[in-house]
Amino acid sequence: MVVTNATGTNFFQRARFEAERYGTDPWVFVRELLQNARDAGAHRVWFQTSSTGGSERVSCRDDGAGMTFDHAQRYLFSLYASSKRGRTRTAGRFGIGFWSVLRFEPDEIVVRSQPQRGKSWQVRLDGQLELMRREHTSMRRGTEVVLERVVFSDDLENILKTSILRNAPWLRCRHRDERLLEVRVNGRLVRAEPALPPPSMSFRRRGLRGVVGLGPEPRAEIFAHGFRVRDASTLDELLVEARPKPPALAGATDGLAPRIIIDSRNLEVLMARGDAREDRALRRLVAVGHRELSRLVRAELDRHAGLSAPVRLVERWREAWSVSRIPRIFTAVVVTAMLAGLALWGASSWLPGLRSELVISKTAASITPPPEVPYRDLWGRYRGPEVDSIGSAVPTVDLSYRPADGGQLFAALWVTGLLEDGQPDAEDQRLIGRYEGAACADNCLEIELGVDSPAGLLRLPIATGHVLDPESVRLDDQPLPVFAVATGQPAVRLDAPRAGRLRYRSGPGRSGRSPKMGTWPALPPNAVEFAHELEELTVSTRALDAAEFVRQRVSYDTSAETAARHMEAREQSIGLFARALAIGAGDCDVQNSLVVAMLDEIGIPSRLAVGWIGAHGQARTGLHAWAEYQGEDGRWRAVDASAIPTPDRSAAKAIPPVAVDPDEFPTRTPVLIPVVFGITLVLAAIAFVVGRRPWRRSFLPGDADDVVGLVRGAAVRPRSFEEIHALFARRLLRLVSGRPISLARVREMARKGRLACGRGRSELARRAAQGGGVVLDLDQAESAAVADVLAAVNLDQWQELLDRAAGNELTAHVEDRLAAAGESRRILIADNPGFETTILDGTAFGLGSCWTVLDEGSRLWQSIRRWAGRRPARASLSLAEAVVTQTGVSPAVRRRFLSGLALKALLEEAEVCRE
Q1: Containing H/E element for 437?
Q2: Are 743 and 716 found together in one domain?
Q3: Which of 79, 335, 721, 891 could lock 714 by a disulfide, CB 3.0 to 4.6 Å apart?
Q4: Cα separations (Å) of 422 from 382, 525, 568, 594?
């Protein structure tokens, strides 16, 4: 029979497409079958291979819980249906599942299973997935998959073992994290342990284990529950968001590089189970890899140098001091505290009657206020309830009010209805005539706004429960008429763009116009049912219960994930309130628009208010939305379902400073400050060490050449060793002068072109060392390896070249002219120096001189020699031009140097022409 999905298309055709899409390895099904067996709770998995009669067969059987046929139809035979979200002990979330067997290109597939309860079953499918036949069978509890095809491979068993070791070398049982899953191929156990050749260090902790080592090529591999999920060249490359770094030196392939293998049970595996989610667990694994690799390198360097335990502690502190400011800041704080304590102790000893008046001030910390922006009308900029649109609409508005001893909610926009797409209804924002306010007599609120508005309507922010005094509205002391929009909100109309200070007054009162009932999107049935259950309660109780209903079902959340979920639901034409309750999270306007719609459903006049929270006489940063309803007395009140509480109307009294009697404290109390500080640090360190879960480590040392390869690898691939500060901070290299130097310092000098090398037996090497130049000693293997990688200037080779080079009358003349122009340089001629012109800038190495060596057999020198006999001035000019062109002499020296030689060459040419 042909199996089809709900849409009527061939289900197995899609299965084949997905298998080819997510699998490039024909043996990817081995990984998938092992994952399914482990997640089913199996402790053993058997693979059997056979090749008979031109066909080869692979069968996989496990001792897991098995499955019923209905379960297999719903999960095993269904694409993406085997979701394991929230089940952290599983090795995968969901993926191509059983259909990865199609990469094997079988001619026949047999699946059989014996569930824990129920009858066993068997299904036989052909290779094209066009026919499926269900049969009866008898077997032990578990699941078995048999694949058969024509002979493709010469050694089926070894290929199967290789696939197991590549994808799941140390797979662990699901319910026994420390027990390995037994995997056998033709009766022989197939298993591996995370191990690397020495030098290496293995480490283990509950739920985490791995090994770090050094090898010829960099490699980092991450496993989850024993399954390979991600690998890269370096640890940082395991993170997609890692910042780009410079590559290794081109063409350099020697030296040692880090090798890291880590297996964790805390990683979350992605859809196809072939990668891990880049989350906190993966970043923690990368940090663990860096730390353990640093331990390995430090252990290898300590072993090579033969350091004692005290010297190792000194080295650790020196490394931390050189790469981080934290030890320096810590030292400065401790020393300052101790000196301050000693100073106070000394002062109190000399002046017994001295007392310090201690004043504890409970005033708020000084915070630089954010910049304020002028007020502009919100209509046209507010797009309706949309996650994170409210908080980012306007930063901090220039709004102040008096008296400043109470919190207020200032509504800049009232929304009394939404369209089906969630947009505010423009019909509710039209002008309806003059605003019917009331003159304020008691508890008045003086409001001042900095405005910068274009021509048009400008709605005035009003505190909840207040009405505007129309006669008090002034823009730069100019009175303005006040109009009302359909929602009842006061507004002024500007005939031209205006900027200035807008002042007006409001007070508690009832709205003069009858409220307009709005039109809202359809409510879900459960919200409608709950709203009607409140009809017997008072208006205020109904409003509070509606807000509590929304608060319990729609949490305040403005994260990017929640915003994306709302956007996806909106694209699927799911209504505003239905998607809010389905997602269970939203912004403040999403929550409170649902409250308003529920109140409107049961006939309570209500509206969504968008504006600012006022505190201490100023508007707080960011917009907020809340619900307002009209009580039995006709006054409007606020209710808020979001996590941001409605501000307390009562004024928060400032707490005055509290004077403390100095006699309550002993005279030498200040001396206890550094003591208490030090004791606290010691106790914190002890708690940190004792409270950590134990690590088990095992170090396998390398041989003597490993340090040379390690240093060479760090010079070739600094990116791979970037986090290992000991390798760069320790003075592992030796100079000709005998003093040690760090690899970081050597790399810095190489970037500046000031790195040289030699054996100390040549005159140039000795002079450079005495002059303070950085000259690596080639008699030390580590220094020689770094000098080779970083292309240090070999002073021994230059000494040999200068010994066989010589000058003549022409070169001496050009040298004299250079010296007269302010440039000291030696010009020599040698046979086969390697290049037509070879230059050594000795000033970079403390030699104080520069050498330019010309090839005696080069075309340049032969041309200069031909001119030297008949036209010596022209020959001098040609030699001078070649020298200054190759050495990059400054323009000023170039002009002074060449001008005289050019004049002589011209006079010489004129003299020759006269002859």
Answers
A1: none
A2: no
A3: 721
A4: 11, 19, 15, 11
Q: Which residues pair with 210 in a beta bridge?
A: 203, 262
Q: Provide the token pair at 597.
A: 């719609």
Burial of 570 (0-12, 13-18, 19+ CB in 10 A): middle
Dist. CA 42–CA 465, nearest whole Å: 67
Q: Which domain holds residue 484?
A: 399-639
Structure tokens at 42: 């199996």
Residue 809: exposed, middle, or buried by beta-carbon count in 10 A (0-12, 13-18, 19+)?
A: exposed
CB atoms within 10 A of CB 10: 14
CA angle at 877 for the pair 871 and 878, rounded to the nearest 5°: 90
Of 166, 189, 212, the last residue of a domain is 189
User: By the 8 A CB rule, do 796 and 821 touch?
Assistant: no
Band of residue 348 on the pLDDT scale cut at 50, 70, 90: low
Q: How far is 863 from 858, CA to CA, in rounded Å? A: 9
In a shared domain, residues 536 and 587: yes
Three-state SS string across 38-53, please? HHCCCCEEEEEEEEEC
Per the listing, tokens 């197939």 go with: 190
pLDDT at residue 250, as a whole number: 44
**Residue 367 placed within a domain:** no
Same domain for 32 and 145, yes or no, is yes
334-353 as b/e: b if 16+ CB within 10 A: eeebeeebeebbeebeeeee
Task: Answer whether residue 910 is part of any domain.
Answer: yes
Same domain? For 858 and 910 the reply is: yes
CA distance 634 to 467: 12
Domain count, the chain: 5
Does the pLDDT value for residue 719 go beyond 90? no
Considering the domain architecture, whether residues 24 and 62 belong to the same structural domain is answered as yes
Q: Is residue 683 part of a domain?
A: no
Q: In what order do the strands lie in the sheet with 826-830?
A: 826-830, 850-855, 837-841
| Residue 132, pLDDT score | 82
Cβ pair 507, 484 in contact under 8 A: no
Question: Do 836 and 907 fall into the same domain?
Answer: yes
* Position 377 pLDDT exceeds 70: yes
Pairing state between β 44-52 and 182-185: parallel
Q: Is residue 857 part of a domain?
A: yes
Summarize pLDDT for 449-493 with one digit per residue, the tens.
999 888 888 999 999 989 888 889 999 889 999 998 888 889 998
Q: Closest Cα to residue 122, out of 132, 112, 114?
A: 112
Secondary structure tally for the chain: helices H, strands E: 23, 42
